[in-house]
Amino acid sequence: MGVWQRELITGLLLFLALLVVGGMTGLFMPLALLLTVVILMRQLFQINRFEKWIRAGGRAKYPKTYGVWEEIYYHVYRIKKNERKRKKKLSKMVDQFRQSTEALPDAAVVLGANDEIEWANKAAREVFGLQQSDKGQRIPNLIRFPEFIRYLKSGNYNEAVILPSPINNRITLAVRIITYGAGLRLLLAQDVTELKKMERMRKDFVANVSHELRTPLTVLKGYLETLQDMDDGESPLLTTSFQQMQGQTERMQHLVDDLLLLTRLETQQKKTECVNVPALLNQICKEAETMKGNASAPRLQPVGGCPSARIQLSLETDAHIVGEEQELRSAFTNLLGNALKYSAEDSVVKVRWHRSKDSIVLDVEDQGEGIAAVDIPRVTERFYRSEVKRAKKVGGTGLGLAIVKHVLMRHDAKLSIVSELGKGSCFSCHFPLKRVCN
Question: Between the CA atoms of 61, 65, 66 and 70, what dihedral angle is there, to the nearest 10 degrees?
Fold first, then answer.
């Protein structure tokens, strides 16, 4: 029999006894009132005892009682016991997590909704100089680098920010923020000192080698030009050899120039000036006529509307952008040069400067051989050239699109490529609207 059934039967028996005694004595109402008061006082006593037990945490053995209150105490006690087990298990898991994160070589800091520190591992305390007492402090008050504060406020955590350690400027950190939960963020910092050192060594090596190669190349080129002037043309083998040597020397010269340009892009500080892009594009298109360096090149027309023109320039906006003119000239010239080089001489190359919803865009579209889908992600790598069978050999250093990529990165811009084999390619440079300066 259930406890509620026993309580109900007990209540019915008391009521029947009340009817009998009340009928015999004629005091039914006073006895009924007395019984009600007794039952009410008992319930109030049980409620008061239960509240005290719960207030104490329900840890001790529950008071001895009977009936439905015994069942209530038992169920609550069992729930509390299970809850303590879960808490113990969760606490053990948290301890294991903290021990594992303490052993991580990378710094980890849990940030609250207001950038306050909620937890940090051992590596974070070492590279950021954090203390146990810093819990609850806002991270910008402890790491005061302007680039880090801008990164933290931006809300755009797709890329890491590079900054020195606040306690040791010889340590370079790559800091990244990952959002999770309700307003929580995890700050991760990786020591990239050796990686940056190797990168600097690579840049210095390329710069030094490129610089040292310029002098012997200049001397070699000068002697070749002298020998070509002395060539009377009586020996076809000698003439061909001079021409091939001259071509390879010029190729090496272009390679050295491109490597030095890439080094400058990677190491020089950014310059800011308002660049008149429409005028720059007009000038580049006019200069493109002499790109191939021969009189047989197709006639170029730097304005749109001429169906026989090789280049069609469409200026749909007069927007100027903040940037470095010579860098932009290099990037735009490389894009236009590639479009002309990898498409038929009787095809049209379209250059379009226009405004989209959220950016200013330069499109360079050709009707050339196109790029395979597997090659598109890699064409901006240094020296990478797609394996395409061509009717004639196309020269180049393999650094043009790498230069374009670095120039756009320095201008907060992105390069997108849409291409299809046999139908042509469209290279688009997307500049953020914040770069507009006119």
Answer: -40
**Alpha carbons 430 and 312: distance in angstroms, whole number:** 20
Give which of 415, 431, 410, 399 is closest to 262, Cα–Cα.
Answer: 399
Strands 184-191 and 311-315: unpaired
What separation in angstroms does the CA of 204 have from each of 173, 199, 209? 21, 9, 8
Question: Does residue 417 share a domain with residue 277?
Answer: yes
Question: Are 80 and 153 in the same domain?
Answer: no
Q: Characterize the bridge pairing of strands 349-355 and 311-315.
A: parallel
Measured between alpha carbons, how far is residue 25 from residues 18, 21, 22, 278, 356 in Å?
10, 6, 5, 114, 99
CATH classification at residue 144: 3.30.450.20
Q: What is the pTM of this model?
A: 0.52
Report the C-alpha gap between 432 and 35 in whole angstroms. 84
pLDDT value of residue 380 = 83
User: Given the DSSP bridges, would you call strands 424-432 and 414-420 parallel, antiparallel or unpaired?
Assistant: antiparallel
pLDDT in tens, 349-405: 889 999 988 889 999 998 888 888 888 888 888 777 666 555 555 656 677 788 888
Instruction: Decide which of 191, 208, 237 is a domain's last residue.
Output: 191
β-pairing verdict for 184-191 and 117-120 = unpaired
